[in-house]
Every structure is written in structure tokens, then in C-alpha cells.
Amino acid sequence: MRILPGSGSITSVAISPDNRWLAAGNVNNVARLWDLTVKDPEASANTLLGHSKTVWTVTFSGDSRWLFTASSDDTVRVWDLQANISDPFRVLHLGEAKLRRPFVYRLEVTVSPNGRWVATGMFGEEVLKLWDLSSPDSSKTYRAIEGRDNNIAVFSPDSHWLLTAANGTATLWNLSAQATEATKRTLHGQFVCDSAAFSPDARWLATAGLDGTTRLWDLHSSTLTPVVLRGHTSSVRAVQFTADDRWLVTASDDTTARLWDMDLDRLLGQVRSQAGRDLTPEEKGTYYLEPRSIGNVSGHSP
């Protein structure tokens, strides 16, 4: 075991996807960065300066090149780990947050896998801010995504889509379009709780529902008619795909987790063969497979 001092009470930690870097934010207005590939990480540790208030969030880009540190000084600092990190590559000026609940401070930062897009949101604020780091003006220029209680911001693995949820309503944004606002799609029919996830191949989007359902959206379809996964008896709080795209896991307040087989072509082929015809979108949702329950009440391992 190694003990790495954090220069003060630690508020957040993150490990880069390539397992090389460990970052920690703390209440002393700095972030600490360790290289885990060297013999003595503490001897070569970096202290990232510049924030004037507590650093609440640290997170890495998917390619492990960029580190983002977010502070209650209303800035996010972007550090290029392939360059001299004595100074940040860019500073995003968030502006003073207009909170409906000023006694709560929680800044969330989400980075697209390609490192181009950054979504920042304050708990209780009515605007989610989307920053394009490929723009030289990105330090103060952002797209404002309106919506009360924006509580979800998830990028697709190919960085083509952004899913947001505000006051229970999910919206899908096409980041490849010139006019992102004009191409947004509202996903109706479900009050989205606390979770949404894209499949690793970026074909499927799963959204967790307050009504106990999970909706599965085919992003290759122009109609975006969801498959509705039923079975939970209380709100679904978490959804996640396995890395090989084979399974979707849903977890609920009913104290169970359910494992869904994502080989839909095979499963729907069996149903079509038995029915002797193709199925309507409504029937696809109705006749979707029964999941395997892996919860701690009625569960068993698959």
C-alpha cells in the first residue's frame, strides 16, 4: 500500500482511462496529479495551481490526454497532460451560477470521449452549458441548454450524441449537426430518473424510468420508437451496458437488478418465426424477452 498526501481534505479523485494518472481535488484550492507508472509517484507529483476556491471535481477525457478540474470559483481548468502542465491549456469561465437552491453547491463536469465537448451543470441551476474545446473562443463561449433541474448529461461513445434530462424529460442532441438546437429530439413517454446509458457500439440508448420501466432507443432508427422493458415493480435508478454490447443491466428500488439479453435480432427473429410475420414497433416492445433477475431478493446468477 502507498500513501499519497493530498495537500488538504480531498473532495474527489479520478484515474485516467489508461491507468497512468491519478488526480485528486481538495479544499485547499489545488489539485494533485500523480504518475502511477513511475517508481515513486509522490516524488514526481504535480500540484495544479490557479483555482481560488475548493476544487470539487476532477475528471479525465476518454483518451487520457486532458484533465479537467472544476472549482467553486466558477471555473473549469483544462490541463494538457502531453504538454507542460504548469499552466492550464484553457480556463472555462462558467459565470456566477443562478441557483434556485443557493444553499446547495454541486458542479458536475462531463467530457465527451473524443475530448471535444464538455458539459457543465450546477445542481439547482436551470442551464446546462455545453463547451466546444475545438473553438479558440471556448473559454467564455458555450451553448446553453435550458431546462429546470438538469440532472443527467451523457455522451455517446462516438461523441455524436448528447443525452440530457431536465425535470424528467430526456432530450437527444446531435453534436455533429451545425445547428444542434434545431436537431434535438425530445424522448417522450417516460419520466427519466437518475440514469441513462449508451451502448458501447453507440447504437442503443437506455433510459431509466420513475414508472419502473427502462426504455431502449434504437439510434439507427429514424422513428426513435422505444422498446419498453417491463418487470421492475418500482423506479429504475441505474442502467448500464456491458463492454461487449451483449447485456443491459437495470437496477431498481424494488431491490433487484435485471439482466437483459441485447441480441435483439436473434430474439426478435425467434418471435417472428413463431408469429409467421414481421412485428409492429408496438409488438416489439410487448414481446421483448423476459430478463434474468440477478437481484438480492429473487435473484440468481445467469
Overall 3D geometry?
globular
Name of the CATH homologous superfamily of the domain at 189-302: YVTN repeat-like/Quinoprotein amine dehydrogenase
Coarse structural class: mainly beta
Tell me which CATH architecture of the domain at 189-302 applies here: 7 Propeller
Estimated share of beta-strand residues: 35-45%
Mean pLDDT reading: 84
Account of the 3D structure:
The chain has 302 residues and is mostly beta strands. It has a domain at 189-302: YVTN repeat-like/Quinoprotein amine dehydrogenase (Methylamine Dehydrogenase, Chain H, 7 Propeller), CATH 2.130.10. Helix content is 6%, strand content 41%. It has helices spanning 264-275, 281-286, and strands spanning 10-15, 21-26, 31-35, 46-48, 55-60, 66-71, 75-80, 90-93, 107-111, 117-122, 127-132, 143-146, 150-155, 161-166, 169-174, 185-187, 192-198, 204-209, 214-218, 227-229, 236-241, 247-252, 257-261, 292-293. A four-stranded antiparallel sheet has the order 1-2-3-4, with no helix packed on it. A four-stranded antiparallel sheet has the order 5-6-7-8, with no helix packed on it. Strands 9-10-11-12 form a four-stranded antiparallel sheet, with no helix packed on it. A hairpin with a 5-residue loop joins strand 9 and strand 10 (117-122). It is globular.
Briefly, what is this?
This protein is 6% helix and 41% strand. It has helices spanning 264-275, 281-286, and strands at 10-15, 21-26, 31-35, 46-48, 55-60, 66-71, 75-80, 90-93, 107-111, 117-122, 127-132, 143-146, 150-155, 161-166, 169-174, 185-187, 192-198, 204-209, 214-218, 227-229, 236-241, 247-252, 257-261, 292-293.
